[in-house]
Amino acid sequence: MVIFYIILLPACLLITKTFNRIPEDLLSKESLYMFPTVWGYLGYIGNWLVFFFLGFLSVIIVTAENSNRTFRQNIITGLSRNEYFVAKVLFIVTICLAATLYYVLVGLAIGFTNTDTIYFSKIFQEADLIPRFFLMCLGYMSFGFFLGVVIKKTGIALFFYLVYIMFIESVIRGIHMYFIRSSEMKLSPITMHLYPMNANEDLVPIPFAKLAEPFLKENEFSLFLDPGTAAITVCVYTSIFLFFAYRKIKYADI
């Protein structure tokens, strides 16, 4: 999983150099690789890769322990449940930090080789994406970890992870939007964005959606949460996922 992430993060961006045509009214081809916009495009690609590969990894590191009965064996031979939980969380945080560091290194490498005039301020003009990228990694991996702890079976946990993120949450948000539009409901439109995986995606959203911001503001609508709200939302959900995973590990019958 990690190797696929390492290979595909730069490859998915650089492969666009082979494209003959890119809609010029949306973006210029050069903006994909130059500072400061490279951070946004690379981060959006990373969003998909982290969701799939690192999210799967966080599920597997727990479910494999149950399948091989190593969790039970570790507890029998003296490892406390608290130590087991802390070890898994530290592993996840380490992977998130490593993934973020790699994102920074790839962004710098691509930016430096494709930007004609380089200024320090230009390089880190969108540097707030770096901590947001880390939070995004942590959000996906904590959710996968939670599902792995609760469901235990690898196949079922991975299936639910994919189905929830790609379909279930979208359906719930669609129903939510219906009630927002209903004259009988007085819900703020922002509430439809405050779902765990949507907030996670909004940390590093698709960059050229910014072109629609003037129109959206004029109609008092937003496609994404603002970065601060998205970060707070993800931190809250991550804490909830880890808390319930801890409770399950603490009191589970092994």
Helix fraction bin: over 70%
User: Low-confidence stretches at least 5 residues in length (pLDDT < 50)?
Assistant: none
Cα end-to-end separation: 28 Å
Largest sheet: none
* Count of β-strands: 0
Spell out the helices and strands N to C. HHHHHHHHHH
The SS-based structural class is: mainly alpha
How many independent structural domains?
Answer: 1
- Chain-averaged pLDDT: 86
What is Rg?
Answer: 20 Å
Helix count, per DSSP? 10
Which assembly state applies to the chains in this document? single chain
Give the overall form.
globular
Strand content: under 5%
Task: Explain this structure.
With 254 residues, this protein is mostly helical. Helix 8 crosses helix 10. It has helices at 2-14, 38-67, 70-76, 81-114, 120-123, 129-151, 154-181, 196-203, 213-218, 227-251. The chain has one domain. The mean pLDDT is 86. It starts with a helix and ends with a helix. 70% of the residues lie in helices and 0% in strands.
Considering the chains and any ligands shown, give keywords for the structure:
254 residues, mainly alpha, 10 helices, 70% helix
Write a compact overview of the structure shown.
Helix content is 70%, strand content 0%.
Strand-helix topology:
Layout: H1 2-14, H2 38-67, H3 70-76, H4 81-114, H5 120-123, H6 129-151, H7 154-181, H8 196-203, H9 213-218, H10 227-251
Helix pairs in contact: 1-2, 1-4, 2-4, 2-6, 2-7, 4-6, 4-10, 6-7, 6-8, 6-10, 8-10
